[in-house]
Design brief:
Number of helices: 0
Number of strands: 11
Oligomer: single chain
Low-confidence stretches: none
Largest sheet: 7 strands, mixed
Strand content: over 45%
Structural class: mainly beta
Helix content: under 10%
Mean pLDDT: 97
Distance between the termini: 37 Å
Order of helices and strands: EEEEEEEEEEE
Length: about 120
């Protein structure tokens, strides 16, 4: 099983990034997919979740209207489009897959928002 995140990097405030998480080794279309993030000195927090079919998503209040989670079950990939980035969005972003009691984590990708 693998969850491999990509797309992180350094961006100026107000900029955009698109994170991707490529999944393998399990039946991706059966899993609810989420993005979490962890800033230095803070607990890991849920950013966004999309259901298995991709038709429903929820977001933490701090990213509503700026971030969009989506998935392509044909490509076994989940995305996080991040717009209007703020310095407080700086964190390591993790991909998470869950189906009933089974779950998997990716290793994370660093996002730094700074001028």
């Amino acid at each position: 099983v693998q969850l491999v995140e990509s797309g992180g990097g350094l961006v100026q405030p107000g900029g955009s990034l698109r994170l991707s998480c490529a999944a393998s080794g399990f039946t991706f279309s059966m899993y609810v997919m989420s993005w979490y993030r962890q800033a230095p000195g803070k607990e890991r927090e849920l950013v966004a979740t999309v259901n298995s079919a991709g038709g429903s998503a929820i977001y933490v209040d701090s990213v509503k209207g700026r971030f969009t989670i989506s998935r392509d079950n044909a490509k076994n990939t989940v995305y996080l489009q991040m717009n209007s980035l703020k310095p407080e969005d700086t964190a390591v972003y993790y991909c998470y897959a869950q189906h009933v009691i089974i779950d998997y984590w990716g290793r994370g990708t660093q996002v730094t928002v700074s001028s």
